[in-house]
Amino acid sequence: SIKHYSKNNHLQTMHIRSKIKSPTWHSLDCSGDVCTRKTMPPGSIMLWRFFSCQEGTQTPSKQKSQPSRVTTSELSYQNLLRSEQDNWNAISARYQAATKRIKEKLQELNKYMFSVESPRMRFGENIYFAENGCIFLSKAGDDEGNVDVLFSTEDLGFSDAFIQRIRISPDQRHMAINLKSENSEEATCVIMKLDHFPVVEEVIPNVFSFEWATNDILYYTSQKNLKCQNVFMTTLTNQKHNKLVYTEKDARFFFLFSLVPTPFFVDIYRTKDERFLTINSNSKTTSEVWLVDCRNPFKLPALIQARREGIIYHIEHRNDELYILTTHGEPAEYKLMKAPVASSGMENWQLVYTPDKKTKLVDMEMFRDHCVMFLKNAGHLYLNVISFPSGSVQSIKLPAWACEFELESHPEHTSSTCYFQLSSPAHPPKRFAYSFKENNLIEQAVQEVPIMMNCHTTRLLAKSKDETLVPITVFHNKNCKELHRKPLLVHVYGAYGIDLNMSFKEEKLMLIEEGWILAYCHVRGGGELGLSWHKDGCQHNKLKGLYDLKACIMLLHKRGFSQPKYTALTAASAGGVLAGALCNTDPELVRAVVLQAPFVDVLNTMMKTHLPLTTEEQEEWGNPLADEKTMKYIKSYCPYQNIKPQRYPSVFITAYENDQRIPLMGVIQYVQKLRKAALDYASTRRKGNWIPNIILDIQATGSHCDSSWEASLNE
Known about the structure:
8-stranded mixed beta sheet, alpha+beta, Rossmann fold, 4-stranded antiparallel beta sheet
């Protein structure tokens, strides 16, 4: 069975813990950390942009002329869509030879990923893991081929879905699975009874997060229009019933001193020791948590601390004390505090640990006698281990090549070892372990990728317009000579306090092997240097991210990393704002731009209040309807609004018909306006003037930056 299911394994089980999925890989969240303690702003659980593409979903008027207007609009949209698809079909034929060569190379490189073991969940002697749409059970120490198949998406009629999350009940008699289709944001929860022959016991649609409170009681959140506001409890006893236990009533809460309405996103997490469930009501700027006692799951949830503006917190539990990862206190960055369960109010919070200045606390994991914290400073990753019995703190600098980490699942909080994986854009995930008994870091033996011996990592600081130093991470082949003649691919994101994705991808490895330079610009608006870094690049500070990006590209060229005519810029989703803005302000810096599901029409989108999450987005971009100053500021950098006749770089955009976050019509209109501007400029110049390729590929399948391995390979 293992050989059959894994021979075409495309790693749908990568990125166990992270809430921030990469565009290519699917997530299997086995660790129980859904709300988490990844220290991005709460409410940023949904990836990248937050908008629905269903424009014009308004209540029909009784006026007779309304149906014809809607029909005309729909026909216009369909004509535009068909025109772009015909254009793509004609253009893509030119690249067949290059496409064939690149696909073959990527498929060859993909074999290196087979050395990465699928994430394991261990309960005593039982080990659960997922591969290629199946969930398996094996025994510790057994031969690899001796496994039981507990679940198969194909056998149960979910062939178009992938496994997003697994939860095993404490007595291992039930298993809850979240299944998500590539073409939809909504997921389905399937509850299996694990007997001699596992059977489906219940199917619950539109579920976002879920946790077991007891052996037969499951708490879950429902999702509708990209929002989660309700928590339900379902019991699997003889008297089965479903009950609403919590609803977020302050979905449009106004703070006393703020005119900005703040929507909240609700999710569920189970503490590492399985003592409590936490109901987390989060926005990007504030949060509050309610406790459910797993020993008394029918009791009403208890509030830990009512939300306060600007204060975010997450909860763990150990020895009748709550450990609180929070922004409370100075500086307004994440730190670790604690309080008794019986008196959990903020007035009783005591400081346990605060990171050094300019060090970001990225994540943490709680064990019975230790707390493991992952930190980032100047692009380097560190591991800090707090020993509760001794009160000591052990600090370990992780390998210099590492840019991303993933904690592995540890259902047993009594474990004496913390397992995690390190990776970089050009280095496949490598497994490490930290032993609490030995107080040392252990590198697990895995197959090496030969090219890694030749990959060089450089970290630079670019001086932005206001003298702020902006980090850049650069990768290139050590054996490359004359770097100023090599092609350069610049990456940017800069939004929502989310770090630029630097996890491994085969195409990055391929580019380095073929002589490319990869540069990652950690501009303001992202989260690389903490919450203040994000705050300094959102709302009325958005232009700072653009200035940062320009400074980074100019420094790269000055240091001899390529030159403008060999430079390409790539971005996904909200990263399209800065990439598109640079095309308008400084098109001479790059030759080509590659955008995936880009957000390029900020102003018009933020003025469409019928979109389900426009209100939530105001915390990032501002509210142009309520403030003329905000409207003018957004208009000053919005890519669509600032297109003008000039020499643009070539642009390749991928968009998705089923994208609920980026309105497809906005992308099509951007492309058409950009083409017209480029042609208008060319027509005013002498004959033979260079005209850029501006290409739009509209994918019929896949959703926002979330496609299958095969679709990603084709792209």
